[in-house]
Amino acid sequence: MDALTLEPIYGSYGMALSISLILIAVTLRFQPLVRNAFQRKWLVRLRFLACMVLVLAIFRPTLNFTSEQVTPTSLVFAADQSLSMTLSDGEGRTRERVQNEAWKQISTELEPLKPDLDLKVITYGDKVTEMKTNSASALETIQYDSASTDITGATQHALNMNRGVALSGVILIGDGNQTSTRDLEAMQLTLETLKGIGIPLWTIPIGRTSESGPPRDVSIDAVPEAMQLFAGNESSINFQVNAKSLTGIEIPVELSWIDSEGNEISFATRTVVPSSADDSVSLSVTFTAPAAGSYQMKISGKPAAGEIATSNNDQISFVDVREGGGKILYLDGTATMEQVFLRRALRRFPDLELDYKWIPEDTQTSWPIDLEQDLKAEKYDVFILGDLPATALGEFQLKQLSELVASGAGLLTLGGSNSYSSGNYQNTSLANVLPVELATPLTSTDNPNSRRDSGEQIAGPISVSPAQVHPIIDLGSSDINESWNRLPSLLGANRWEGTKNIPGVVTLLESETKEPLMVIGEYGEGRVSSVAFDSSWRWWRAGESATHRRFWRQTMLWLLSRENFSNKDLIIELDSRRIPQRFSEEEAAQFLITPANPNNQSFAEDLKVFVVETDGTRKSVSTEIEFRAKQPIVTGKIPPLEPGIYQLQAVAGTAEETSTITFQVSEKSIELTQPEADPDFLRQLSAATEKYGGQSFRPENISTLCDLIRKNHASSQIQVTSTFRLGEDPVSGWILFVIFTGSLACEWILRRRWGLA
Question: In the predicted model, what is the mean pLDDT of the chain?
Fold first, then answer.
């Protein structure tokens, strides 16, 4: 008790004293008319007791108590649970481990301040979650799987969850890498709110500091996602090695094959030495394709000492190696729409490997070009000659080409302003190979340009009609004429002198005036197809891309002597073989399945598609059947998958009729593609509340932070005055009431008992 005071009614001592004296005087003056002194004495005592209760109520005695109390407050600890916390802190530990140890130390050192200090724990990533416990082991149960970091959202949530409760401060720990799309204005507003209510923000940055030097990183880039090769053929792969903060340090690079069984065999090694702090080195590695099968070509850069993220040190290319198939060399001299769409069509088929060489007209000074390596026996199975004059190749190399066809290679010649007679092929040995008759050889006095314009071209538009039934021109319709009639007309074509009257020469396509447009034949052991037009690209542009691909594929298969293939073969096409992790329906990769045999119209009736995991687990995939150029096509979307290697498997009919394609789901999180910590950002945030005690602390200085919190908590003690006024609380009020009414009741009872008036 510090003080006893009186607080009379109406705040007037005079009035209270006057009333009290009157009550006492009346009590003493008007005594009971009782002769018995004993009885009179007790009746007066009881009346006087009731009078004293009234006097106390009038003067209202008050006891005042003063004490020191600590104001209960809360402290919010915000922990980062994004994917980047699984990375190294640059000093041998993971960021999540550093964060867990920091929280355990804070929880232990501040334990004595409970319950006056309420520790609340939240985790933040792409969303904020309030933990149900604030024990020292609270962070051991969280999953570090958030794909982004929203530091702004965490700070705002810390403020909102403590409305109506005194907030002593916010501790924000993490790597400082703000990867969410929230704008900077939101963060600025949050900081202004903190400053406005005077709350300190303490930050604990995790990761390399500027004193530690810039982060090191090795990454493999620019690797083709898929390759089609043929067993035993020599090929090459080009890629880049990116290096940061590794100037002059050797980086070993290894290339290896991973077969379908998961066996990994190294086949090449290289060493890269960066010449600058941020360097990209291009490499080209030549190799021989392994035995037929499906492989992953893995290119790995050895992790550097102190490297934070190593997930980008490896890159995979999916390689399909085939025993047979066809390797095609396409030679052209004019950048036309035809060559663009023809290349696009042929490269969609995994069993056809296309090499393209452009020989522009402005290089005539170096004609004939050197094709020594390309005209080696068995290097290419099919040769395509586009709009290219004979002089670009030269008689010697044209003779070599003729010999290759005679030995079994296929040859396709296309129309154009520099093809056939217009390109002076009638004077070469290749004229003997073609199934068509070219114009008579030029004499020394003939002008090639005048010959070119003297009726050797058929003016368009030209409607194409089948001359007879053949697998090459079967477009999948029951009415072959109807399927060709719906195609757009051609813009023009070359005119031949005629077709050769020898066994095996067949005209497949002709114009409405019966001029031959496509003629096939044989030369030695090889096959030859001569096409007079160069505007089949118009079919693709008119929505008949499937027809365009089918026609040219069937032409290639005939030239390869592979027109009689199995109905079991399916072709699976994926948008990409390296698919980013999917987070929405719009991001789903699509696949398309067609039969290798264009005449197989029933393949989709019992087709089932599965995604196969590395452990053999199969997950069914829903599909739809579409019709393009009256040919059934199966389409679908890759379902959401975790990062890893998978197979897309198509099963038609029995399990033996199976085709597969391997693909990779890659990590999409920006948390791992931008692994560098940003401690400076957290320092800037705490500096905004420096006026109220905001600071930034390294993990090794947690004790200093706890000392500061304890000091601030002790300074929050306030003097609390407690007041006890007689009669105002229920207990004392009832006591006075009982004494007052009890004394009067006793007085009345005694009077009745003694028979007094």
Answer: 83
